[in-house]
């Protein structure tokens, strides 16, 4: 085990991640890759969905066109998409998220449904969703990158994905990056906050929104992409143009032209984070040293992608956490009825089922409040103030539904001072 493996395992435990894979490069050369997983059949070579890291590929395609003289970043997008509802937004503004477009396209959440075609997307987004004037402030827009992808497609005379393959993946040797999940891929999962069980997330074809977040990739391919963002490639894009992309664009102070700018332990790194239902991703590189970090997880939340570079590179202390394993359904006995949010007076606690134990955590701090274990069919405190005490489940006399929990006269209710439950000392009035 290396220090990288230890830090990755800490990320897995702290984030409750079904699996997480990662890699580190120093001076442009991969020096480590690893996997920390609670699932079988997932390894460091597995493909994961990379979400908005896809935007960095779309941005590079736009800058290729600029360098070839086929467009100018000051051009309004309406020059290329006359039917667009935001014709005055410039390509630079779309790349930097400063065009004032809404964050998401009109319609159902695009990340969880199969997407339609470009004509449908353009017709649905008529400009009425604008949230700010151009240049007023930074406002992240997935819709804007869908428009950029269509600009690329029209100027190249080929679908966006074909252009990605021909002009990026082939010259860079990124053969493991794909539009759809390959045979060896991690399944998208969401972790139930209270039960710690796993739910499957959809692997959608996002259609016209694909340039904003569709792609799948591996640690090895993404380390190659990260080094390209640092040093360039004569058949793809020059290092000088990549330096232009990495410079923050006002009014944003941490976003350039399709690249996020992250300050980590005295160094500046560029790249992107990514998320799709069931997945999170992080890719950042120091363009001066060519040190890079990539991490991919198959969980909707929990990775905290912005903190991955500092954690794996050792610039901050790794979180202290035990390995995490999901709970396997069905949950035993009445456990499912006890999970969720409970209040002792006005103070909230999350009751969770993990490792075969019932655990209560303070909502404000996430610190352990109580830990209960099953003793002869009853929950008894094993850690915390209620150690040794029995947790009593109080049910409604008519419906049988769990109404409250009681332990050594402490009463827990689903809402603060639930008026339907007898509270020691009565119910407080308003001051």
TrEMBL record:
InterPro entries (UniProt xref): AmpC-like, Beta-lactam-related, Beta-lactam/transpept-like, DUF7586
Pfam families named among the record's database cross-references: Beta-lactamase, DUF7586
Domain DUF7586: 332-414
Domain Beta-lactamase-related: 6-316
Top-level division of the source organism's lineage: Bacteria
Record-given protein name: CubicO group peptidase (Beta-lactamase class C family)
Organism of this sequence: Nocardioides aromaticivorans
């Amino acid at each position: 085990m290396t220090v990288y493996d230890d830090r990755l395992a800490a990320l897995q435990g702290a984030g409750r991640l079904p699996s997480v894979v990662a890699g580190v490069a120093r001076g442009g050369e991969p020096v480590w890759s690893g996997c920390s997983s609670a699932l079988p059949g997932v390894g460091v070579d597995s493909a994961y969905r990379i979400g908005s890291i896809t935007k960095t590929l779309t941005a590079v395609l736009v800058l290729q066109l600029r360098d070839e003289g086929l467009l100018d970043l000051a051009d309004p997008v309406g020059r290329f998409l006359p039917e667009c509802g935001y014709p005055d937004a410039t390509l630079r503004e779309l790349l930097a998220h400063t065009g004032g477009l809404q964050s998401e396209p009109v319609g159902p959440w695009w990340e969880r449904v199969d997407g339609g075609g470009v004509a449908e997307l353009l017709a649905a987004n008529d400009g009425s969703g604008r949230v700010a004037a151009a240049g007023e402030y930074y406002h992240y827009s997935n819709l804007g990158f869908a428009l950029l992808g269509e600009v690329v497609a029209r100027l190249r005379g080929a679908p966006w994905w074909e252009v990605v393959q021909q002009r990026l993946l082939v010259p860079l040797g990124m053969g493991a990056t794909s539009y759809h999940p390959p045979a060896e891929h991690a399944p998208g999962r969401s972790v139930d906050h209270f039960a710690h069980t796993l739910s499957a997330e959809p692997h959608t074809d996002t259609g016209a929104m694909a340039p904003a977040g569709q792609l799948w990739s591996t640690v090895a391919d993404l380390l190659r992409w990260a080094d390209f963002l640092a040093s360039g490639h004569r058949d793809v894009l020059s290092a000088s143009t990549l330096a232009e992309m990495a410079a923050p664009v006002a009014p944003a102070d941490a976003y350039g032209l399709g690249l996020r700018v992250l300050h980590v332990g005295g160094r500046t790194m560029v790249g992107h984070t990514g998320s799709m239902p069931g997945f999170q991703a992080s890719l950042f590189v120091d363009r001066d040293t060519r040190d890079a970090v990539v991490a991919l997880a198959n969980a909707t939340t929990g990775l905290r992608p912005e903190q991955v570079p500092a954690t794996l590179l050792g610039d901050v202390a790794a979180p202290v956490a035990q390995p995490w394993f999901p709970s396997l359904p069905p949950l035993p006995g009445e456990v499912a009825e006890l999970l969720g949010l409970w209040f002792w007076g006005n103070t909230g606690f999350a009751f969770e089922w993990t490792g075969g134990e019932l655990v209560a955590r303070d909502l404000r701090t996430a610190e352990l409040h109580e830990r209960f274990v099953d003793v002869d069919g009853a929950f008894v405190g094993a850690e915390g103030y209620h150690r040794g005490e029995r947790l009593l489940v109080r049910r409604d006399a008519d419906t049988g539904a769990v109404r409250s929990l009681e332990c050594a006269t402490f009463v827990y209710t689903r809402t603060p001072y639930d008026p339907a439950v007898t509270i020691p000392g009565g119910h407080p009035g308003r001051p």
